[in-house]
Amino acid sequence: RIAYVNGRYVPIAQAQVHIEDRGYQFADGVYEVVPLYRGRLIDEEPHLDRFDYSLGELEIARPMSRAALKLVLRELVRRNGLSDALLYFQATRGVAPRDHKFPARVKTAFVATIRRSRPPSAAAIEQGVSVITLPDIRWERCDIKSIGLLPNLLAKQKATMAGAFEAWLVEADGTISEGSSTNAWIVTADGKLVTRDAGAAILNGITRQRVIKLLENQGIAFEQRAFSREEALAAREAFLSSSSSFVLPITKIDGHAVGEGKPGPVTRRLRDVYVAAAL
Ligand code: PDD
């Protein structure tokens, strides 16, 4: 496997960054994950837009122009010879002696890797996965795709220990924000498709945005708003969305069956429509 590290393509075993990289010391950086599906990058531009947004919010200088970044991603795909994969790239504020203040003259550090994707199993797609709910203990800027992911890791680990695929995070007011690395959707008891509105409480998923676009002409009643754990437990359907899982049905929440305990019609249709659009 070949990685890209600050201007060079190197075998991943030899890829190294400085121990005083602020990403390493402070999680002072941002990242993106872009799916490569059958040789094509999915929604590359929106991912690059969000990368720019995250950098801007943290006042980290862009590592390179968009055109250069696109070339690096293509070259990484080419050198690794993959067609179904996930590209990961991150930018950190750079290398400087450890000090909380932003360093004055520093060059943004940038690394990118690619790896074969492990798409959800046929069983997960056909039977759905389970989620548990946990308190959302993250910060108030979840709209920034920061590499500071400890609360997300703790939640995913608890879900894994509980035999669940994902954790849905519940805010102090009882509403669900999103999953630890996925956006959360339900079809309510009265048949409305609902996902959290984009704001500082969630990462505005590129898959989420794509699904919303694909809803046009589907005749599905749709609302972007907060929904509670109770509403989710009473829902007919539930699913999650992300670059690695696309649209994945959820058939159990905290041990309770969602609807009839199998993936529902809205979820199935949206997964099909999403995959067809990605081809
Ligand atoms: N996770 N919410 C959070 C907290 C996420 O970390 C992610 C993505 C999403 C879904 O966003 P998108 O549709 O753009 O992938 C929602 C990536 C895949 C990750 O951390 O690996």
Automatic annotation (TrEMBL):
It holds the Pfam family Aminotran_4. It catalyses: L-isoleucine + 2-oxoglutarate = (S)-3-methyl-2-oxopentanoate + L-glutamate; L-leucine + 2-oxoglutarate = 4-methyl-2-oxopentanoate + L-glutamate; L-valine + 2-oxoglutarate = 3-methyl-2-oxobutanoate + L-glutamate. Keywords: Amino-acid biosynthesis, Branched-chain amino acid biosynthesis, Pyridoxal phosphate. Gene3D superfamilies: 3.30.470.10, D-amino Acid Aminotransferase, subunit A, domain 2. Its EC number is 2.6.1.42. Belongs to the class-IV pyridoxal-phosphate-dependent aminotransferase family. The keyword Amino-acid biosynthesis applies. It comes from the Bacteria. NCBIfam families: PRK06680.1. GO terms for molecular function: branched-chain-amino-acid transaminase activity. Acts on leucine, isoleucine and valine. This is Probable branched-chain-amino-acid aminotransferase. It comes from Hypericibacter adhaerens. One of its GO terms (biological process) is branched-chain amino acid biosynthetic process. Pathway: Amino-acid biosynthesis; L-leucine biosynthesis; L-leucine from 3-methyl-2-oxobutanoate: step 4/4; Amino-acid biosynthesis; L-valine biosynthesis; L-valine from pyruvate: step 4/4; Amino-acid biosynthesis; L-isoleucine biosynthesis; L-isoleucine from 2-oxobutanoate: step 4/4. Its cofactor is pyridoxal 5'-phosphate.
